[in-house]
Each structure stands twice: as C-alpha cells, then as structure tokens.
Design goal:
The protein has 282 residues and is mainly beta. The chain has helices spanning 2-22, 47-52, 256-269; strands at residues 35-44, 58-61, 64-67, 73-85, 88-101, 106-108, 119-124, 127-140, 150-164, 168-176, 182-183, 188-191, 208-222, 227-239, 272-281. Strands 1-4-5-8-9-13-14-15 form an 8-stranded antiparallel β-barrel. Strands 6, 7, 10, 11 and 12 form a 5-stranded antiparallel sheet that branches. The two termini are 33 Å apart.
Length: 282
C-alpha cells in the first residue's frame, strides 16, 4: 500500500514539474494569487446501495427501532492547490465520508458457548461507517482560463480506509435456542467499543481499503478578490479487496466477514456525488 501511494505521489510530481517547465507565459495568478484552499461539503444519494441490498434497514426510534433508509450520505473535503499555469494546477485532497450499512436480519448457528441458539432473527440499527480519503489531483482548464477561478476538470488517484464507527447501537433478538426456548429480553443496547459484547468483535474488524480514480467537473465563482464559491459533480471508480479471515467461533451474533463485505459493496456503489464549498486564494 505505501509503495503504491508513493508511486502515485511521485507520478503527480513528475507531471507537475514537466508541465510547469513547458510554459513560457508568465502566470501572475488570480489577482496575484496562485495558491488556494478548497473546503467543501460532499453529498451523495446511495441509490444503488439501497436498490441492491438484501437487508432491511432499521433506525433508532426512542428506546427501540423502526424501519428506515439511508437516504443520503455526506462528508467533507479539504484541498490545497497551486496553479503553476493559468490553466493547470496540482492539488492534494483529504476528506471523510459518513455512510451506513444494514446488517443481516437472519442468523443461524449452533454454538457450544454461552450464546446457544439454533436460529434467530435480529433487528439491528444501521451501522455507521467512517471513511478517510487521501488523494493527489491534477486540475485542467481551457487555455484562456485563470485558475483557481472558473470552470475546470480534475482527475485524481487516491485511496480510502473505511471502518465501522464504534459507539452504542440498539438491537432486538428473537427466535429459539437449542432447547426450543424462545429468546427474549426486548430491545437491548451495546457499546461496539467493548470487544466482549455479543454482537461482533471489533478487534477482528480490519479496515476496508479501496483505490479511487476520480473525475470531477468543478466551478469556482468569485465573491471577492480572495474568496470564491466552488461547486460541481464528482465521479469515482473504487476498487480493491479487503482482508478476509475465518470467523473464530467465539459466539458473536453478527458475522464480521459479512460486515466487511457490506462496507466494501457500499463503497463500490458510491460512484457519484455533489460538492459545494468555499475557496480561499492566497
């Protein structure tokens, strides 16, 4: 992973250096400003995740749960860039995305440990997923443009790390144990940070890593000599494998391997988003 990231950063640096050396026209920048910061909010509708998921989503309501949907995901991006030419700039972007997965509603096992059951139905609150994103980008515009102002095209190659947010969740377990006795107890809460909880072992949950190829259409509209509104649309192609492992059979209700698969699928379906924010030119 570190080798690929280093190669990616080196490739962007070589492209930046080569492109800069070709220019013979002096670039005085936008009002003398060529370095800039972007701060944006990113919003996406997980349409394909909702259509192709097999599980029912539950949201927390009072002391229990009710059916719901993950209607939209959100996040933020922070970028620093430098325009080496009127129509060319190099940027580095960091961001976070916040999304949800729906755990499976049916589990079937026969453990010999303390959580004995033959089959069970589980209603589990939607689980929050936090994704960290790192990406170098190149920005291009038309020949007569004056970056960072105006319409531009961005391409990027980066990577992301996604993990389940470890905090309190609510669930309801129904069914029968191995002796035919109904499981009961009503709605319960547990802290996912506790590795001894009955739902899943957070220690075994490795990050889901994805490589990202980005194309973005971006527009910056000036408000003043130093401040602009930036907005546009992003398309991403995300691919990669997560570290799989065999369940250790410690009696957890949820399968950690399946949770990783849900995170991976949700990220792969997140290929279009919109962003809006501010740009500060220095």
């Amino acid at each position: 992973m570190k080798t690929i990231i280093s190669i990616s950063l080196l490739s962007f640096l070589v492209a930046f250096t080569g492109y800069s050396q070709k220019t013979k026209v002096k670039n005085n920048g936008y009002y003398g400003k060529r370095t800039f910061f972007d701060l944006s909010t990113v919003i996406s509708v997980p349409l394909f995740s909702n259509v192709f998921t097999d599980n029912t989503a539950y949201k927390k309501e009072a002391a229990g749960l009710s059916t719901g949907k993950d209607y939209f995901n959100y996040g933020f991006r922070i970028s620093i860039g430098h325009a080496s030419k009127r129509n060319f700039a190099v940027l580095f972007e960091y961001g976070q995305d916040y999304s949800n997965i729906y755990p499976n509603n049916y589990i079937q096992n026969d453990y010999s440990g303390s959580f004995n059951y033959v089959y069970a139905n589980i209603k589990h609150q939607m689980m929050d997923v936090k994704t960290n994103i790192f990406m170098p980008k190149l920005e291009f515009a038309t020949k007569n443009s004056l970056l960072p102002m105006g319409l531009s095209h961005q391409i990027g190659l980066g990577y992301s790390k996604s993990k389940i947010a470890l905090h309190e969740y609510t669930y309801l377990l129904t069914g029968e144990d191995e002796n035919g006795v109904p499981l009961s107890g009503g709605y319960k809460k547990y802290d996912a940070k506790d590795q001894n909880n009955q739902l899943f072992n957070s220690k075994r949950m490795q990050p889901v890593n994805k490589f990202i190829i980005l194309y973005a259409l971006n527009l910056r509209s000036p408000i003043s000599k130093s401040l602009m509104i930036n907005y546009g649309i992003r398309y991403t192609l995300q691919f990669g494998r997560y570290n799989s492992y065999a369940n250790s059979g410690d009696g957890t209700y949820l399968d950690e391997k399946e949770l990783l698969s849900l995170i991976s699928r949700q990220r792969s379906f997140s290929f279009m988003s919109f962003h809006i924010g501010l740009t500060l030119a220095l």
